[in-house]
Fold Phage protein.
Amino acid sequence: MSDSKIDCKQLEQLRDSLEAMARNSDDFFEAASREIAARLLAKVIKRTPVGTYPSNSGKVGGTLRRGWTAGTNQAATSYADSLTVHHFGDTYVIEIINPVEYASYVEFGHRTANGTGWVEGKYMLTLSEQEIRQSAPGILEAKLKKWLSGAVK
């Protein structure tokens, strides 16, 4: 029989990297939550209709669209980064709301002013959420691969 020596330094480094990543996994999940929220905001903002008014009315359209970022005129990504991520067990939640009082009427539809007709909803949040639900697994997989590649250098 021969005497063999095994150098386990690389395995120990991998173990240490994986342990460090496990300790910082909340950071990964929060970043992933914010990225998905930013993508949702980008879609819903693009889909939100802007009212058009005569130039002599003094009204300016876009209040509902600006409402998605609380009127801050920030890009969806920077606004999503400022949102709080709530952690409940193994679930991470970011609340995305539009505080404009008529947002739900545009989303789901409403009766006309005289009460005789119906204005169909635009479903800007509903449709955007459905699209994000379909693309989220791919987004998370890519983000996870990139995060794990940090352990295996």
Summary: The helical segments are 9-23, 25-47, 63-67, 76-82, 103-108, 124-149. The beta strands are 86-88, 91-93, 109-111, 118-120. The longest helix spans residues 124-149.
